[in-house]
User: Fold this.
Amino acid sequence: MTQPADPKDSAAKPSNFLRQIIERDLEQGTYAQRHWAGQPADAQAHAQGPLDPARIRTRFPPEPNGYLHIGHAKSICLNFGLARDYNGVCHMRFDDTNPEKEEQEYVDGILDAVKWLGFSWDTNGTSHLYQASDYFDFMYRAAEYLVEAGLAYVDEQSAEEMRANRGDFGRPGKDSPFRSRSIDENLRRLRDMRDGRLADGAAVLRAKIDMASPNINLRDPALYRIKHAEHHNTGDRWCIYPMYTFAHPIEDALENITHSICTLEFEDQRPFYDWLLDRLAEGGLINKPHPRQYEFARLNLTYVVTSKRKLKQLVDEKHVDGWDDPRMPTIVGLRRRGYTPEAMQLFAERIGVSKANGWVDFSVLEQALRDDLDPKAARAMAVLDPVKLVITNWGALMGGDDVLDTCSAPVHPHDEARGRRSFSFGRVLWIERSDYEDVPPKGYNRLFPGNRVRLKYGHVVECTGAVRDAEGRLLEVHATLVPDTKSGTPGADAVKVKGNITWVGAADGVPAEVRLYDRLFSVPQPGTGERDFLDKLNPANLQVATAYVEPSLAQAAPDTRFQFERHGYFVADRQLHAPGRPVFNRATGMKDSWAK
Ligand code: ATP
Ligand code: MG
Assistant:
């Protein structure tokens, strides 16, 4: 007997190399014996705690130096998604080891973005929100440990000497003359560094590994540098700060991270990640087994840039109206553009994770949005480039020019339960300028003299001509009503027409600002090659127009999304839209207009 397919199975996430690694670790119980102190801690404190209740621990570790972009969304969906799927925990960690001025705006923005995407760092009442700078004491302790173990030394070569002695791909490095200092001298100099007795750049603490290693990252990498600078969290307590490559593995280890997932650029750092954590684990400083680093390909999305530095430049130089400009590939920008958290998650799932760098077409993101909104978004009619259609026999047929006829349409065509919306048909309607032609091009089924079309949800009309001004600009289109053709009434379909056009009644249509956004850049891979990425901004990436929309839309709450029939998906702008002053952003068209 065959079992009916479990619907949960068909909805199961496609596997990928990270899932396979996690499943293998779970099966083998790689991390099953580790203890957890209830918070990030060293090996001793963790040992006092119970077995770690989290089956896996991942983390999302942004630097609070800008707003998050779509690439970060991929990383968030990945890290929080894996934790959710495997009964784990994902830590939200600010990687704030660089002393820089407090950017509370960025910290808040990042937390908002993660929450908005639908993830939480609270699990069973515990908040897993951490900041790397809280680990400075431990990091310094680890540094002294390495010195005492003969695994690190204070190098006082000049920056140029250090660079020259590092060698390159074809040439091994040369040992620093400071490399053979005694442990005691190293310890004394490290403490001099810590105590502010040395100037910025006068010395660095380096790991003692191998100056001839084919992996340049293992040629005695720097661990600590001197920087007499205030830190937003630790103030002036420190004048030495850990290098990222030293800090990151330690942050992971203290937090009991199991799978430390990062982008491919860090692949060459993995041997040092393991070297460092192996040494600290041997010394009994951190939990065993230690976290492992796994790399995946970063997201590159066509027609935008995904680098905080470049996005910041767009904002600072006012090429856009801020981090949340709807043209920006930031999470706040996409949100304002009309994207939903579900669409972003769907996108992340569809692009998957791989080990090969490449570009994902922007249309994949747009399709995820259409697929998410199609079943959800209420329908509405809007005329984006309005011209008047005058029904010349209206008064005679209806008993007065001012008579209005109420028409209605489903809020959603596949869900009658959502009810109907209504609007008025009258003598004058707004239609799209492009829905009329004096002489129809081949295959044109809309309005031209002698042709009949249906005004969707309304009546059939027959075009009788148009009025133009002296310059030939279209002023009005004229038509006559064909009686007994109102949609939904018996016999309405007896009159066959090929064209079906959208409209808004002049009597109750509401003027609205529509912001038609297009690709931010006009080339698919801005910033690659020699070009300055700013040269390729798409000059037509925003068009602002006055449209007419159905009366009900004037009351729409900010952030409400609609499908404007024929035109695409629109959202009531969260900043600009207000009762009495509707403003809609086009999130995406009905289909991919950039497809070749
Ligand atoms: P940027 O270069 O834009 O500043 P970053 O990598 O320096 O990005 P972080 O704040 O350090 O930014 O990133 C936090 C996390 O997001 C990291 O784990 C990083 O790997 C991940 N991430 C950043 N950009 C992308 C991307 N384009 N695709 C996937 N993951 C990304
Ligand atoms: Mg960075």
Remarks:
- DSSP finds 15 helices and 29 strands in the chain.
- Residues 431 and 503 are 5 Å apart (CA to CA).
